[in-house]
Design brief:
Structural class: alpha+beta
Number of domains: 1
Distance between the termini: 49 Å
Oligomer: single chain
Number of helices: 3
Number of strands: 5
Helix content: 25-40%
Radius of gyration: 20 Å
Strand order of the largest sheet: 1-5-4-3-2
Strand content: over 45%
Order of helices and strands: EHEEEEHH
């Protein structure tokens, strides 16, 4: 059975003006530009009182690192009280969104994701030895790279929100 180890988790919160379509496009592009396959597992949208939207989105992205390791990043979006607003940018009016925005990121590394080491009890034992003694430092370096990836994603998210929030 494949094992998942949590490597990093964080949240990005923003309240105010931002561009929903823009942040959606920027983040989905980040995943593809960095070699991750992205799937949207859930998209729920409710319209509340006064036309304000509440949106929940679940993304899961994965990237094969080796035949043994795979990265997985989950992004859970929570948007509350989203309304459309018009803002003036350099003398031109543009439609934006206003509300509370939060994305919870969770990064994990999966070992033996193809489950090649689980067919027989002896293979399970050998995998335990392999994990504990032979690839301990290799796994650590892969975890560091995954942390770099997720921190890059978080910085991209914050930079986009700060850029659109100032307009």
């Amino acid at each position: 059975m494949a094992e998942e180890d949590k490597v990093f988790s964080t949240k990005v919160k923003h309240s105010g003006v931002w561009d929903f379509k823009g942040i959606y496009a920027v983040l989905s592009s980040w995943f593809s530009d960095n070699g991750y396959g992205l799937s949207e597992n859930s998209y729920k949208e409710n319209i509340g009182a006064g036309g304000a939207k509440e949106i929940e989105i679940e993304w899961e992205a994965s990237k094969k690192v080796t035949d043994y390791f795979k990265y997985k990043i989950k992004a859970n979006w929570q948007i509350v009280g989203m309304t459309s607003v018009e803002v003036e940018i350099d003398g031109a009016k543009k439609k934006m969104n206003k509300g509370q925005f939060e994305i919870a990121y969770k990064a994990t590394i999966t070992k033996d994701y193809e489950e090649k080491w689980t067919s027989k009890p002896i293979w399970k034992f050998l995998r335990a030895l392999y994990d504990k003694y032979l690839i301990k430092e290799t796994k650590s370096s892969y975890e560091d790279k995954l942390v770099d990836d997720i921190q890059g994603l978080v910085e991209e998210t914050k930079a986009y929100l700060a850029l659109t929030g100032r307009k």
